[in-house]
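Sample A.
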Amino acid sequence: MDSKTKIRMKNLILPLAFVFLWACGGKDSAMDSDYTQFKLEDTASIQKIIINNNGGSKVTLIRAQGGWEIEGLNLPARRDLIEVTLSTLRRMEVKEFIPKNGQQEVFKKLSVYGTRVEVYGTDSEPLRTFFVGGPTQNHLGTYMMLKGSEVPVVVYVPGFRGYLTNHFNPNVIEWKTKQIFNHHVRDIAWVQVVHHQRPESSFRIEVLSPSRLSLIHLQTGMASAKADTSLLKVFLQNFKVLGFENWVDVNAVRLDSVQQKYPLQTITLKDRNGKETSVKLCGIPLPKGTLNMLGEPISVDVDRMYGILKNGEVTLCQFFTFDPVTVPIEYFQGERVGKP
C-alpha cells in the first residue's frame, strides 16, 4: 500500500470514528471504556453485597460459612434470589449506549430513583459500585451507571428476556427466606423435638455417621434399642426444605399468653458447624363460638399455628407442612400412636 493510499484511508477513518463517538455520547462512549465494565466473572470472590436506595431501603448480604446471610438479622438470605443476583453480576453486559440527547434525563433518574449496589471482596474498597434504574421502553434492557461516571448505559444479560431491576432489590423483606430448615442429612449433627404437652414423647436423633443414627429418649437420656433406622432417615430428609407460610405481627402480651397456654413443639437442629436453628410451634387461639366445617366448636386453628423463630420473629406455619417432623418418639419404635 503506497503512502497516498494510507493518507486517504486515514482521512476517511477519522471522521467516521468521530461520528461514532458523538452518536454514542461523546469521547467516553467507546465500547472498552471503564464505565462499561459492570460484570464480575469471579463471583466466588464476592463476600458482601450492599443494596440501598434514597427511600431508606437497605439490605446488606454477607457470605457466611453455611451460605449467604442478611447482616444484622442472623437469618439466611433467600438462596434462589442470591443465585439470581450472583448470576446477573457474572453475566451482565452493556447492550447499547444512550443517545447523547437522552443521557441527562436518564442520569437524573438514576441519581434520584436509582438503586445503589456495592459489591465487595475481601478488601475494604468495593470491587464494583453501580446504580440500577428502571427498564428500557421494550423491557429488554436496564438503565445502569458505574460510580464515577456520568454516562448511563443499557445493560442486559445475554439470553435473558426482561429487565434486571428486581435482581438488585433493596427491600430486606424480599431477601428473608421463608425456609426455617434447609439442611441435607450429611450436614446434620442432631435434631431434637420437644413435645410440650407430652414430654414423654420428646426425642433427639443423633447422626453418628451417614449410616449410624441414634434415637435418644429425652426424658431418660437413653438410646432406644428398637428404633427403625429407615424411619429415622426419612424423618431427617424432611429438613432439606422446611419453612413457613408468612410472617405475622403478634403483640407481646398475646404472644406470651400463647406460649404459656398453647405450646405444641420446639424443634431444634444443630449442624456440623455447631450452628443451631430452632422454631417453637404454638397453637393459634380462636374466638369463642368458632365452629369447624362440621359445625363443632373448636378453640384453636386446626390448619395453622404460630412458629416462633430463634430471633423472636413470629411466623405462620401449616400443620400439613410440619406434621412429618412433629411425630412422637413412639413413631420410630413401631407403636401406633395418635397425633401428640
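Sample B, a different protein:
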Amino acid sequence: MSGVATPGSTRAETVPTGNTFDKYGSTNPVVRRLMAGFHRALDDLWEQARPRSVLDVGCGEGVLTNLWAERLGEGRVVGIDLDDEKLRAEWATRERPNLELRCEEATSLSFAEGEFDLAAAIEVLEHVPDAEATVAEMARVAERYLLVSVPREPMWRGLNMARGAYWRSLGNTPGHVNHWSKRSFESMLSRHGTVEEARSPFPWTMLLVRL
C-alpha cells in the first residue's frame, strides 16, 4: 500500500509512501488468514500470466517486488514509487541483479511502449488522484498483461467500522481517494483490454487483464 505521485499532486493528496499498516508482517490471526487468501489469488494470477518482465507501480517497501524478482531469476523487474528516504533505506536491503527500484510519477512513466511484459499495481490505485491516467500509462508500457488489486467497496468500509476503525470517515482508510465495487473496477480495466481472470479474495478485487 503506497502513494504514487501524479502530475499536479502533492504529498498531502496521496497516502504516505509505504505501508500505513504492515499487513504483510502482521501477527494478527485474522489478518494473517485474509492475507493468505490474498496471496493465493495473487500467485494464481501470476502463474497464469507467467511474465518475462515486470513493472511494479507503487511498490512501497518492495516486498512483493523483491519476491517477484527472485521468482523471475534473470527476468527484469522494476519497482517505482514516490521519492522517500525511508523507502530508499528499505530498497537498499533488497538489492538483486535483476531488480531496480526507483522514483517515477505514475502518470508520466519514462519507459517505452511495451517495455514490460506485465505491469502491476497491487493495493495502489485506491490511493492515486488520477487512477484512469495511471492505468493508461501502465497499459502503454506493458505488452501483454496488467495485474491489479484494490479493496472492494462498500465491504471494505463496513469491515473497518465493524472493528471500530475510522468512524469519523465512515470506515474509509486514510489515503483511500478512490472506491470501486467489483463490477465498477472491472468496467474501468475493461477499457484497456480483456479481463482474463477476476478473483475476489475477501475483501479485495484482483484482476488479470490481457492487453
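Observation for Sample B: The chain has one domain: 11-210.
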